[in-house]
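Regression test case RT-17, inverse folding.

Input:
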C-alpha cells in the first residue's frame, strides 16, 4: 500500500491529547477510529514500540498484513544475503511478536497494556499523531524533549497541552 495508492480518507492525520487514567484507559480520538473503521471491520488497534522514536506506533489490524507483504518484498530483493535474512527475522519479530492488539469500546476507549505503556513512556497524557498509514502515541513530555522532532511539531504539542490546561 504505497502512499500514492492510498485514498486520503484512509490516512491517519491530525493530532489530539487525551487523559490516561490510573488503570491505563484512554480514548482513541474519533478522527483515528473513523479511519480504522473505513479500512475494515475491526474495532481494535495494534500497538508496537516505534522503531526510531520513544513512542508507540499504532495501526489497524488490516495494516499488519500490508506490513508483512512489504517485509516479504524487501526480503525477496535481498535473497541469499545472510545479513538481510537476519534483519528480516529481526523486523518480523518486532513487527509481529512485539505488538499487542487492543479492542476499543463503543466510546473509543482502550486499556493501554502495561508493557506498551512502559515501552512508550505513557503516563497521564497520551498524544495521538496521525502519520499517514499509521499513527503514533506519545507522552507529550518525551516528544518535547526529542531532538529529532521539528520545532513546528513541538509548537502543536504545546498548543494541545495549553488547551488542556497542562504544563509543557
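Golden output:
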Amino acid at each position: 500500500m504505497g502512499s500514492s495508492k492510498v485514498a486520503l480518507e484512509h490516512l491517519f492525520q491530525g493530532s489530539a491529547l487525551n487523559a490516561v487514567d490510573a488503570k491505563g484507559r484512554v480514548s482513541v480520538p474519533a478522527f483515528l477510529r473513523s479511519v480504522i473503521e473505513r479500512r475494515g471491520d475491526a474495532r481494535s488497534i495494534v500497538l508496537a514500540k516505534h522503531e526510531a522514536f520513544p513512542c508507540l506506533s499504532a495501526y489497524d489490524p488490516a495494516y499488519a498484513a500490508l506490513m508483512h507483504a512489504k517485509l516479504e518484498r524487501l526480503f525477496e530483493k535481498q535473497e541469499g544475503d545472510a545479513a538481510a535474512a537476519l534483519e528480516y527475522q529481526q523486523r518480523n519479530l518486532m513487527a509481529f511478536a512485539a505488538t499487542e492488539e487492543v479492542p476499543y469500546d463503543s466510546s473509543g476507549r482502550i486499556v493501554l497494556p502495561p508493557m506498551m505503556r512502559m515501552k512508550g513512556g505513557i503516563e497521564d497524557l497520551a498524544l495521538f499523531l496521525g502519520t499517514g498509514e499509521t499513527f503514533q502515541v506519545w507522552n507529550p513530555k518525551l516528544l518535547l524533549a526529542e531532538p529529532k522532532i521539528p520545532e513546528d511539531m513541538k509548537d502543536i504539542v504545546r498548543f494541545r497541552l495549553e488547551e488542556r490546561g497542562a504544563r509543557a
